Amino acid sequence: MWVRVWYRNIGDRSLYGTCRPQSPIQRALVRRALAPLLCSQPQARRTLQLPRKPIPESKSRSQPGDFYPLASPPAAWRALGGGVNLLRYATGTAARSTFFLLFRLAMLQLVASGRGWSSVLQSREVATFSRDWRAQLEFVQFFLRELMKLSQKEWSHIQAGTYVMPRVPSRHPLELLPRSVDFLQNLQDSMKLRASGITDAVPETFHEDPLYPAYYKQNFHYQTDGYLSAASAERYDFQVEVLFGGLADMMRRQTLGPLLLFLRERVRSRRELNERALPLTVLNVPCGSGGFLMDLLDNLTADKELQDVCVTNLDLSPFYLQRAQARVQELTSSTATKHASFVHANAESLPFPNESFDAIVSIYLFHELPNEARRRVIAEWTRTLRPGGRIVFADSLQKGHNPALEAALDRFRVNYHEPYYQSFIETDLRRLFSEASDQQLVWREQDIHFLTKVCVFEKRVI
């Protein structure tokens, strides 16, 4: 019996499978020669004619009579490496989210306690500031469910090789303590702005500068100095992570999938057509303080096909632009620093020739623009995008996508001073992009990632 089991499970794959004779006559002779060693001729014939099934990768000797050879060393090492990466990703993501979620809850408790900061806060108006532990527990449960969905989606991208393992839990963990102290020190100033209703407390030197439109010279999120100071640029990433419980970077990274897949497809098509090897160009607008740019450069550096991609980073804030540039200069990879350039300009009037870019990526811009500014930006994107190029667009979740978050979307505008947010979440993006581009931009796909919506548009080839 054990001989038959051995042959059925191993011998048929090793002796007869690996060294299988090619001629039908040779195969018949091998069957006849092996038959006396196993059983009677009819039994051997039935055994040898059994359909071969692939060896299960994870099966063990849990059942009597089952035996499978050990995996080859390369496969075993790959499995071990995958397990280590999964553990590293899971623990890093959990640590990061736990830190920012607890910090957020502590901050909300501090604000709700009063201390002269929140005289205008009302629990009926700002439910997230409530000290009701049941409401907070429901929020935590909901947040953890969304965290699991988002992390599973990201891990599937990492496994598939869509993009590389992100640097979690933090690029610079030792910076968390001073950033936390700075956040809390600045919180009182932000709450005073909110309590007084002041929304234009930006440095005086920018009030008369025509480069900055009136809508830009505001304190979005009741942020001290708005976007127009070095201190604002330094603390921005930490503030956003507190706001989203440590999921901001993860949501931004969901734009990497469609962007990198398109760039790889573009490289291969150029190679097949034997086109002149011009570097692919990407416009990152706005680049902000460089959070998404760091992840993008990590992937461009790791992929041999994309190491020549040039990324132009544009922002209207000189301070955020300088912050992003300083972060790139800290990178050790010469490939990343060589192909990243920085431009100080308004997205409504891009200083580039027609058809300059293969792809444009934009993250969290439109919800802070009035509608007419959105149309001008789309027109400029259309002008500077090459035919067949893609726009990967990410911004806030909109109305109708998740009923559980409808109330949160309504509160966000009130809680964080977003004067154009309501119009954005009610805007039909397909129609807006089509009309503003004179029907040159075609909607391709969209996906929802917790509080972020990612859309892809393509410029028609005429």
Automatic annotation (TrEMBL):
One GO MF term attached to the UniProt entry: methyltransferase activity
InterPro entries from the UniProt entry: Methyltransf_25, Methyltransf_Superfamily, SAM-dependent_MTases_sf
Domain of life of the source: Eukaryota
Pfam families associated with the record: Methyltransf_25
Segments forming domain Methyltransferase: 282-389
The name this protein goes by in its record: Methyltransferase domain-containing protein
Organism: Cyanidiococcus yangmingshanensis
Organism phylogeny: Eukaryota, Rhodophyta, Bangiophyceae, Cyanidiales, Cyanidiaceae
